[in-house]
Amino acid sequence: MSPKHYLSLALCLPLGAFALLPSFAAAPVPATQDTEEMTFVLDPVHCMANFRVQHMGAGMFWGRFNDVTGKVVAADEGGVPVSFDVSIAVDSIDTGTEKLDRTLMGPNFFDGKEFKTISFKSETITPVPGEKTKWTVTGDVSMLGITKPVSAVVELTGVNGNSVMRKAGYEAIFSVKRSDFGMSWGVENGALGDQVDLVVGLEGDWSA
Amino acid sequence: MLQMVLMSFLLPALAGAGVLALCWLAPPIRRQRWLASSCFGIALGGGLALSYLSEIGGPSFPPPRSEGWIMLAALASMPFALLLGFTDKREFPWVELTGLCTGVVVGLMPVISGTETLPGVPKPLFPDMGIVSHAILALELAFGIIVVIRLAQVRTGATLPTAFAICFTGASACSMASGWISLSVMFGVLGAICGAAMLFARFSGGPSIGRGGAAVAAGLLVFLSTACWYKSSPPPEVTWWVWMLVAGAPLLLLPLENRLVERMPAVGAYWLRVVVVAAPVVWVLVRVAPTIIGETGSGTDEMDEMMKMYQ
Questions:
Q1: Is residue A18 part of a domain?
Q2: What are B246-267's pLDDT values in tens digits?
Q3: Could you give the number of structural domains in chain A?
Q4: Is residue A188 part of a domain?
Q5: Is B95 a residue whose pLDDT tops 90?
Q6: Each residue of B18-67: pLDDT tens digit?
Q7: Domain region containing B97
Q8: The complex's ipTM?
Q9: Label partner for B196 (CA 20 to 30 A): which of A142, A144, B11, B244?
Q10: Which of B65, B182, B235 sits opposite A114 (nearest CB)?
Q11: Does residue A140 lie within any of the structural domains?
C-alpha cells in the first residue's frame, strides 16, 4: 500500500466513524430483551381511579380515588401488559364534597373503616382484534369482602424512557354493578344507579 | 322514595307502636304484668329488626360484615326483654346480674366474632375496635343498664320514654352527620317508638317501661352509638364525647331522683327532667345541624336530595 493510500485511509476512517455517529444515537437501546418482563411499580401521584354513577335517575356524577398503588408486569419494554395487580385505598375517595365523601366512605357504600382497600388482580390478557395497543383484561375485583370477575378494556397510553428508567401508562375502562358487591343502598329506590363506570389511569415506573 | 320511607321507617315504627298499644292500652293484656313490663323492649327490638331488614337485609350468623351484629342484637333483645319481664319483681342481685351478664357477653365479642372469617382468631366487633374499647363498652353497657333499670323502677309514666325519644333522635342526627344513612333511619325508628310510648303512657295510667324495656333501650342506645363511632367516618363536629353526651343523657335523670324534685308538682318535675335530658342533646343537634344541612360541606347528601325531590 502506497503512502497515498495510507493518507486517504487515515482521512476516511475518522470521517466514516463520524458519519456513523448519528445512526448510533438514533438507534433504540433496548433496556432488556424484547421478551423479558419488566415490573412497573405504580406511581400513586399519577394514578387515579375515576368513577361515575347516575344520581336520582338524572345526571351522572363523578368521583375518584386518589390513592392507587400496585404493579404492572409488562413485556416488550412495557408495551405489552402481562399482569395487573392494583390496589385502591378507599379512604382516598374524592368527590369534591367532603360530606358526600363521608357518606360514600360509610357503611352504606364503600364501608371504608372495615374494608380499607379495593383490589384488582388480572387473570387473562388478550389483544383486542385489530388493535395494537388495546387488550381485554379479565380478573377479579375484591370489594366489601366480595370477589367478582370483571372484564376491562385496557389501552396502552404510552411508554417512555431509557435503559435506566422507564415509564409505562395504561388506561382501563370498564363497568361493574355495585349491587354484585353488596352495595345495594339506593338501587331499588333509584337514588343512585346500580351500574358504575370506571376509568382507571395507571402510570408505572421501572428502573434498572 | 315513598316505598323506602314506608318500609324502613313507617312500618317498623308502626309495628313497634302497635305492640305497645296492644300491651299498654288493651285492658285484658295490660293486666299481664310480665308482658307490660317487657313490651317496650320487644317493640324497640322488633322495630329495629324490621328497619334493618328493609335497609340492609336479613340476618346471618356469623354476619359477613360487622353491622350484621346490629340485626343479631335487635333479634336477641326481644327474648331478652321477655325474660327480664319475668324477673320484674325480683330485687338484688337480678338487676345487677342483668347488667353484668350483658356486659360480659359484649365483652366476649372479640372471641365470639372471631368466627366471622378466620375461625379461632379473635376479631373485634367493629372495625379498629381494640380489646380495651370492648372492655369499656362492656362496662358502659353494664352501668347504663343497671342505672336505667333502677330508674324505671321508681320513675313510671312518660318520663323515660320521653328521655329515650330525645336521645334516639339526637343519635339519629349524629349518624346522619357521620354519613351512615341506614343507621340514622334505624335510630329514627327507635325514637318514633319511644315517642309513641310517651303518648301511650299518658293515656294508660303511667306504666313503667319495665326491666326489659329499660335494659333494651339503654343497651341499644349505647351499642348502636358505639357501632356508628367505629364504622363511620364522623366529621369533626361528631367527636367521641358528643356521642357520650347523647348516649349518656338518660343517666342525667339519676341525680334528679331526690327529695327536692320529688316535692315539686308532677308536671313541673316532668318538664325539669325532660329539660335536663334534652339540654345536652339539643346542644349536640345545634352543633351537628350545619353538617347535616350541608353548610359545612359544599353539597347535600342522598337523603336530603330525595326528601327535597319528593316533598
A1: no
A2: 999 999 999 999 999 989 999 9
A3: 1
A4: yes
A5: no
A6: 999 998 888 777 777 888 888 999 999 999 999 999 998 888 888 888 89
A7: 2-310
A8: 0.84
A9: B244
A10: B65
A11: yes
Q: Does A187 touch chain B (CB under 8 A)?
A: no
β-pairing, A117-127 vs A93-94, is unpaired
Which of A113, A115, A178, A181 best tests the B interface by mutation, with the highest count of B CBs <10 A?
Answer: A113
Task: Give the residue carrying C-alpha cell 324534685.
Answer: B261
pLDDT tens across A50-94, in order?
999 999 889 998 999 999 999 999 998 888 999 999 999 999 999
Q: pLDDT for A137-181, tens place per residue?
A: 999 999 999 999 999 999 999 999 888 899 999 999 999 999 999
Would residue A142 count as lying in a domain?
yes
- Domain housing A195: 29-207
Residue A159 cell numbers, joined: 411508554
Q: Give the CATH number, domain containing residue A48.
A: 2.40.128.110
Chain B residues close to A104, C-beta within 8 Å = 179
Cβ contact B145:B153 at 8 Å = no
Q: What is the mean pLDDT of chain B?
A: 87
Distance CA B103, CA B22 (A): 31
Domain count for chain B: 1
Tell me the sheet residues that pair with A161: A166
- Hey, what amino acid is at A15? L
